[in-house]
Each structure stands twice: as C-alpha cells, then as structure tokens.
Amino acid sequence: MIRLDKVSKKFGTGVFGLSDVTFSVDKGEFVFLVGPTGSGKTTIFKLLIREVLPTEGSIIVNDWDVVKLPKHKIPHLRKKVGVVFQDLKLLFDRTITENISLPLEVAGINQAEARRKTEEILSQVGLISHKDKFPIQLSGGELQRVAIARALVLSPDILLADEPTGNLDPATSWEIIKLLSDINEKGTTIIMATHNTDIVKSLSKRVIELEKGRVVHDGKHEGHKTKEKKEESKNLPE
Ligand SMILES: Nc1ncnc2c1ncn2[C@@H]1O[C@H](COP(=O)(O)OP(=O)(O)O)[C@@H](O)[C@H]1O
Ligand SMILES: [Mg+2]
Fold first, then answer.
1. 43 CB within 6 A, ligand 1
2. Domain with 49 in it: what CATH number?
3. Residue 193: enclosing H or E segment and its boundaries?
4. Is there an atom of ligand 1 within 6 Å of 194 CB?
5. How many CA atoms does the CB half-sphere of 128 hold within 13 Å?
6. pTM score > 0.85 for this model?
7. Domain extent at residue 64
C-alpha cells in the first residue's frame, strides 16, 4: 500500500534530506519511524502527500504513482492519507468542532453527514465534552487528539502522525499511543514518527530507523540490538 523505492531528496541548499530510502508498509500495519532530529522523518511524510517531490526514486501510495500524479488528483491522495502535523496546524479562532469538520467542508460533504461524522470522531477520540471549546482552553494531549480527529474525519486508509507525543508527559503520551493503537486495530495503517525511545522499546511494533536520511534498521524492536546500535552511533562523529 506504501512503497518507497530508492528515494532521495536533495534540498535546494544542497542538503540531502533523504538518501536511497527503500521500504514498504502493508495495509493495516503500525510502524514507528524513528531517528534523531534532522534524520528525514518529516520529509518522508511530505513526500507521501506530494507536499514535496523526490529528487530520485519512486513512491507508491495505494495504487497511485505519487511522483507522476497529475495535480488535480492530489486532493484524492490527501483524502486517503491523513496527517497529524508536528505543529498541529489548528485554527485558534475556531472551536474544536469547527476545526475537526473543516476537511469535510472543504470536501463538500453535506451538512447533516458532516455533523454526524464529526460527532462520531469526537467521541472516538474522547473529546465530546470539549466540542464547543476553543483550542486555547485545551491541554496539550487534548489538542493532539483534535489534530488526530481532524486527520481521521475523511476516513483515510493511512494516518501519518509526526511526533504526536513530542510535547507531552509520559502518562499523556501513553494515552495518545493507546488511541493510535485503537485506530490501527480498526484497520487504519499508521506510521508514527517519534524519537521517544521509551515508547518504541516497550511495544513490539515494526521500527524503521533513520540516520542522516538513510534507513539504518527496519524490523521488530529487539532490545539489545538497538542498544548496540546506540553504542556504535555514540562513537560516530557528528
Ligand atoms: N525545506 C527544506 N529546505 C532545506 N533543507 C530541508 C528542508 N526540509 C528539511 N530539510 C533538511 O532535511 C533534513 C531532514 O529534515 P526532516 O525531514 O525535517 O527531519 P526530522 O523530521 O527527522 O527532524 C534536515 O537536515 C533538514 O535540515
Ligand atoms: Mg520532523
């Protein structure tokens, strides 16, 4: 359902955001994308929704060749791939309900159906009691839930979550992970970018590890192997 083949992305500045990245993600998988800041996690997400184009390589999402996708088909791709951005991108002058229903409005869904879908998503993410509040009245974990709800409201096949626990305390982070696992169990494919090693270590999910734009590990988390890798990379020059 997702396939990157020998993908490289060189930015105008000459920086390689990604070099020769190859991996596939099957329908229904939950994958952690890990690596330090600057290793290329967000760039992979941007490539998957055609926000940027690769310098080399091919990208397949569902049956679309993302690189060759005609401009008018980009909205179709983005309906199928929901994204929770690192900076959430919520509208602070709109209520929680309005934020979540915005993608439905843009997609031209009729009002009754939009209301039904928004209520359903609000209860799925546990925000019904906050539906008429504004973002400024919510906690960090609740805002993360709003962003997740907005990314899910068009029922995408794939959810990309960019460091959704980045600014949260451990207990709240676990609640977000629980929510994402539940969403995955209902069938949505999930790729979650994170550098929270505690979370990755305690779940036996597939981990794709990036270092300086390259995939350095891809597989189920195995305690001591990852530790060895850490020891090795400690000795590498920056
Ligand atoms: N628009 C851009 N212009 C120039 N360099 C970029 C741009 N976006 C990302 N990069 C560079 O690409 C590399 C990977 O960035 P990014 O994908 O944001 O990493 P991560 O999300 O893992 O922190 C970094 O070196 C970053 O500075
Ligand atoms: Mg990032």
1. yes
2. 3.40.50.300
3. strand 189-194
4. no
5. 9
6. yes
7. 2-89+156-200+207-234
Q: Is the CB of 11 under 6 A from ligand 1?
A: yes
Q: How far apart are CA 124 and CA 229, in angstroms?
A: 38
Domain assignment present for 102: no
Q: Specify the 3-state DSSP secondary structure of 92.
A: coil
Query: Which atom of ligand 1 lies closest to the CA of 43?
Result: 17
Per-residue exposure over 103-138, b if at least 16 CB sit within 10 Å of its own CB, e if not: bbeeeebeeeebeebbeebbebbebeebbeebbeeb
Q: Does 160 map to a domain?
A: yes
What is the number of domains present in the chain? 1
pLDDT tens for 96-153 read: 999 999 999 999 999 999 999 999 999 999 999 999 999 999 999 999 999 999 999 9
Handedness of CA 184, 164, 223, 212 (dihedral sign): positive
Q: What is the DSSP letter of 164?
A: T
41 domain residue, yes or no? yes
CA distances from 179 to 115, 142, 182, 203 (A): 22, 12, 5, 14
Q: What is the pLDDT of residues 11-22, one digit of tens each?
A: 988 889 999 999
Rounded distance between C-alpha atoms, residue 96 and residue 181, angstroms: 23
